[in-house]
UniProtKB/TrEMBL annotation:
It comes from Laccaria bicolor (strain S238N-H82 / ATCC MYA-4686) (Bicoloured deceiver). Keywords: ATP-binding, Kinase, Nucleotide-binding, Transferase. The keyword Transferase applies. This is Predicted protein. Residues 1-193 form the Protein kinase domain. It comes from the Eukaryota. The keyword Nucleus does not apply. GO terms for molecular function: ATP binding; protein serine/threonine kinase activity. InterPro entries: Kinase-like_dom_sf, Prot_kinase_dom, Ser-Thr/Tyr_kinase_cat_dom, Ser/Thr_Kinases-Pseudokinases, Tyr_kinase_AS.
């Protein structure tokens, strides 16, 4: 029997569509935190779940304005001996460099999504459309593989803790990226996040 995920049905918009109607920096930053909580929840499951295709189009916003990490088409259920996932790449603008150009060690024939590749995708998801100025996917892939990253918007750059966290999360070196749990802990240290964190305690396990 194949393991699977049963998800609630949502009729609301994804976060990219939602942000076209909601320009508040506070709302954007709140959603950044909620996406991190969702990723942490997946990574701490037993067995752990790697999303594999985290991006704005795969984050829904429910009727109360909360972010819901969704679309597990590339999700990997770790530690399952009964299930082998087809590890094709997600959308390149959100894909970690080690997935697009995996090390050729002869042991792993296909790119392997990991917790750290999810973290890279999370950092890119902070942007509504990373590398929007680059129309060609080939140019995007070239930029990511060469260490180029989008310019942080003022709403993030003005918050040093958050800007540093994003830069670490999209590090070219996967080992230098924080875990989802570390991201949530660090976000709780910032004033904008602490103001509403208590309201989320019953929403997702912390």
């Amino acid at each position: 029997m194949l393991p699977g995920l049963v998800l609630e049905f949502y009729e609301e918009k994804n976060v990219m569509e939602y942000m076209k109607c909601e320009s508040s920096d506070d709302t954007k930053l709140r959603l950044v935190g909620e996406i991190a909580l969702g990723l942490k929840y997946l990574h701490q499951q037993r067995p752990p779940v790697i999303h594999g295709d985290l991006r704005g189009a795969n984050v829904l916003v429910d009727s109360k304005g909360h972010a819901i990490v969704a679309d597990y088409g590339l999700a990997l259920i770790m530690g399952s001996s009964e299930f082998t996932s087809i590890k094709t790449a997600g959308t390149c603008r959100w894909t970690a460099p080690e997935i697009m150009n995996p090390p050729n060690n002869g042991d792993v024939p296909l790119p392997q999504f990991t917790f750290k590749s999810d973290i890279f995708s999370y950092a890119m998801t902070v942007f509504e459309q990373p590398f929007n100025e680059k129309k060609s996917d080939g140019n995007v892939i070239f930029a990511i593989l060469n260490g180029s990253r989008p310019v942080l918007p003022e709403s993030i750059e003005s918050k040093a803790d958050l800007a540093n966290l994003v830069r670490q999360s999209w590090s070219q070196n996967a080992d230098q990226r924080p875990t989802a749990r570390q991201i949530c802990r660090r976000l709780r240290l910032t004033t904008w996040y602490g103001d509403w964190m208590d309201t989320l305690r019953g929403y997702l396990p912390l």
